[in-house]
Amino acid sequence: MSLFLLIQKEAKAIFSNTTIVLAMIGGVLFYAFLYPLPYQHQSPEEQKISVVDLDKSELSRKFARMVNTSQQVNVVEQANSIEQAKSQFLNNEITGFLVIPSEFSKKLQLGEAPTVGYAGDASYFLIYGTIVEGLMTAGGTISAEYRIAHLAIDGTPMNAAIHSFRPFQSNYIPVFNHYMGYVQYVVPAVFVLILQQTLLMAVGVRQKQSSANENTATHLIVRFGIFLFTELLLACLYFGYFFDFYSISRFGTPLEILVLLVPFISSVILLGLFLGKILPTPESILLLVLFSSMPIVFSAGFIWPSEMVPSIITDIMHLLPSGFAINGFLKLNQQGAGLSGVLTNLGGLYALCILYAFLFFITRNKNNLKGDTE
């Protein structure tokens, strides 16, 4: 069979398989739009809360207005009691409620720090943290006003009073994450994981469903080449069009990205071939890839601190391409490290290529010997 006919036959076997097409192409396109959707606004804003004002003074009302004008919080309800606010919360009318104590204004005027209460669902930590940030900003502002006023009354010049309360000013200039949002640091890393997991499923299923006659060296090289070329196109779509679509920073040049993409995709293909050899059914490949996705995400270090993950888990994850690739692409694309900054990642990916190829051919030869014996 000529090489052209062999390529044509293998391409037909791959792209006529519904499972492979849905996993490799459909999955990539579907998750490209689905996953970033919750992060479109970069961070939660205008969270609905209720205020229980037990002080009912001009100062407490001023504080409630300051809370409402913050970017993070939107006061939509006024409750007469804590029980009423609790009922609003349990009925999902609000995401939390603020309690202003009865001696709020009295303590402020005496120069003391009143304690306000907030109740919310801390299991939604992004929303909870956003509301707390808004409340702390408003509370800090009104507290500063009165502390500075007390210093001025005691005879301290106004400029000196302000300087004593704020001895220095912060000027934050984000170097990499310019929007200080989730899209810039979560989505690029997850895109790498999506490319890995969808390709693993596609290659594993194709390898599992291939016959003995389709596992010659020439067949395998053609299969490898088709998957590599197709995945490179999908990866360029991710790092090109979708990065621009979501306004994600990209400091790496196309050539630098391609240099890192080739060993990453190659290692994933070789791992998929190996899984297709050792796992009993195509369904088992799909289940393994799906159930491994969450541990990979949390051990990669971009959502959950890697220092808080047991070292044995992070060591195991370095046996997967995503362990080197996620870190490498973040350095290259989001931090502008250049190829010199990702040499370790490149070396790790090429080492994995050698490891997976060795394991695959050892397994393949054992199966061939077993078949000849039988």
From TrEMBL:
Q: Which domain of life is it from?
A: Bacteria
Q: Name one GO molecular function term.
A: ABC-type transporter activity
Give the residue spans that cross the bilayer. Answer: 12-34, 182-203, 224-243, 255-276, 285-304, 342-362
What Pfam families does the database record attribute to this sequence?
ABC2_membrane_3
Q: Which GO terms describe its cellular component?
A: plasma membrane
Major place of residence: membrane
UniProt keyword annotation of Metal-binding present:
no
What name does this protein carry? Integral membrane protein
Q: Which organism is it from?
A: Aliivibrio fischeri SR5
